[in-house]
Every structure is written in structure tokens, then in C-alpha cells.
Write the C-alpha cells for this entry.
Amino acid sequence: MKIDVTSLDGATAGSIELSDDVFGLEPRADLITRMIRYQLAKRRAGTHAVKNRADINRTGKKMYKQKGTGGARHGSARVPQFRGGGRAFGPQVRSHAHALPKKVRALALRHALSAKVRDGGLVIWDDATFDLGKTKALKASFEKIGLKSALIIDGAMVQETFARAARNIPQIDVLPIAGINVYDIIRREKLVLTKAAVDALEARFK
């Protein structure tokens, strides 16, 4: 498929042919959903924890004699049924990550890219360069072309001045091609790829 190439100021800069194997698939919501769940689960810290009865700093001596009190039989005061006792079956430190085959992850990325094309949310730039390095000036340029919520993907390296100018603009993410991922593609309204990013993606899935 052919798509127009534009510049940062909105001017037309020719066109580019996109691979149907990467950008022309019929999007599958189930694959995209699985990949997003995989990403969000993997980035969870998993540092939640509670104290069980073994972690409570309290005597383990039997509270009172077994018989003759008229009350229930009790031993340690560290058990969960008493105030200040341990928590039964509470969360412990663990990893929330789960396995997802590499081929499924790669396919989900291609389907996310295809979904952006189908929704009209894909923009191709000639390059992502901005020499001024000022957030106010770059934000004005984005407003001029109607870019409010976007993931901008460049080639192997992102220009430092462009990244510095864009990093404080809300709902604008700038990443090199190595950082492209399904979650960030879906959560932003527009996906902006430079020609270098398109070449890298098509070479990756060749």
C-alpha cells in the first residue's frame, strides 16, 4: 500500500510503499489484547507483601491453660484471628509475568501496526528533527498539524534536541525503533513513524 509522507510542518514530502505483511493485515483484537496483558503484567513490581504468623514479633507461649476457662482453646497469640496477629493467605513478593511465545508477540506488533493503518492513525514523517530544542516551539508545531496524542518512533537513535523538546509535552511519547511496543501504539491516538523506522520495521519482519 502507498501512503503520503509529510514533514514536521505538515508539508508533503512524497510517498512511501508499505509492506502488506506488516501494515496490511486484518487486525485481531485478541492478539493485541494478549500482548497488552503480557506487557502490563511483566512491568508490575510484585513487591506487595504482608506478615504471616511467622513474621509477627509476639510470644508463641500458650495464652492460657487448655481446660477450665470456659472459653475456646487457644495457643499462640500470633495467629490470624487475633488483633495484631499474622495475615492468612495474604500477598507475597512474586513476579506477575507470564509466558507469551515470541512469534505471538511479533505477530501482535504487526496487527497493532495494521490496526493503526485501518483507523487512519498512521502518520509517516520524512524525519524527526528539530534544531531549536524548545518545548514551546515544538508544541506549536504539533498544534499546527493537529498532533495531540501520539507515539513518535524514529530510527536507531532519536535526535537529542527533538527528544528534549518533546519530553515535557503531555500525551507525546518519543522512542527509538527498539522501543516500539503494542501498548504504547494502542494507547495513543496517532502513530508517527519516520522513513527510517519504516525501513527498520520491514527489515525486522522480512
User: Anything to note?
Assistant: Residues 50-90 form one domain. The longest helix spans residues 102-119.
